[in-house]
Amino acid sequence: MQIYWTKINKIIEETPEVKTYMLDIPEGFTWEEGAHTHLALEGFNAGDEPNKSLVRHMSISTLPKENSIGITTRIRELCSEFKSILKTLKVGDQVALFKIHSNVPLKRENKNIYLLSSGVGLATFRPIVLEYFERADNVNQIQSLNIDSSKDYLFTDIFTSAPDKNFTAQFVDNRKDYYDEVKKFASDKEGLFYIVGSDEFLLQNIEVLREQGVKTEQILLDKRERALPKFLSPELSV
């Protein structure tokens, strides 16, 4: 396993609780839209066994053309050991990256795409939308729906409806409005539904979509293949 050590070059305060850590791109580090990586703090590999409390699975919220690896995360006042350390880091400090993979690249199948996310899960979709803006080939349109009870909505510079680009962005702060919109989306029997959020959020969305007749093959999750049966197994169908 290759470990890429790199430095923080900028810290962006997106909202009072959400920060984006911009990292230098190490030589040989490549990724595509919808990718995630493991972010590790100094000392994680100091012992005989890796210290897993110093490692987190994180989406990459930038595209390579932005010349930095963006890691966007919510850090609350009461937080884990990992995030307690992360929030003390400054520009110039070192972190490690390893195991890059993309479960949700932009599919170009001449279909409508629906991006369903909760809170900071929107970070996974930011590079997908940027890639679509750059090249919309074989994508009919994209509609993004994000629920965030804090009302401190993320990336509103990008997630703004643009009819000329066949792109719609919606933010809601409550479950009723959110699932009312999801049900409307589900009337599209050919659409592709990308979902990012907590496991509970994924299961709730899948249940609503399936109740509306959406098929398993239309649902894309930011999960490795071995984890998909937990969410998309036939026993969970309604």
UniProtKB/TrEMBL annotation:
Molecular function (Gene Ontology), one example: oxidoreductase activity
Occurrences of domain FAD-binding FR-type (ranges): 1-107
Protein's UniProt name: Dihydropteridine reductase
InterPro entries reported for this sequence: FAD-bd_FR_type, FNR_nucleotide-bd, Riboflavin_synthase-like_b-brl
Organism of this sequence: Lysinibacillus composti
Superkingdom in the source lineage: Bacteria
SUPFAM superfamilies assigned to the protein according to its UniProt record, in alphabetical order: Ferredoxin reductase-like, C-terminal NADP-linked domain (SSF52343), Riboflavin synthase domain-like (SSF63380)
Gene3D superfamilies per the UniProt record, alphabetical: Nucleotide-binding domain of ferredoxin-NADP reductase (FNR) module, Translation factors
Membrane-spanning parts: none
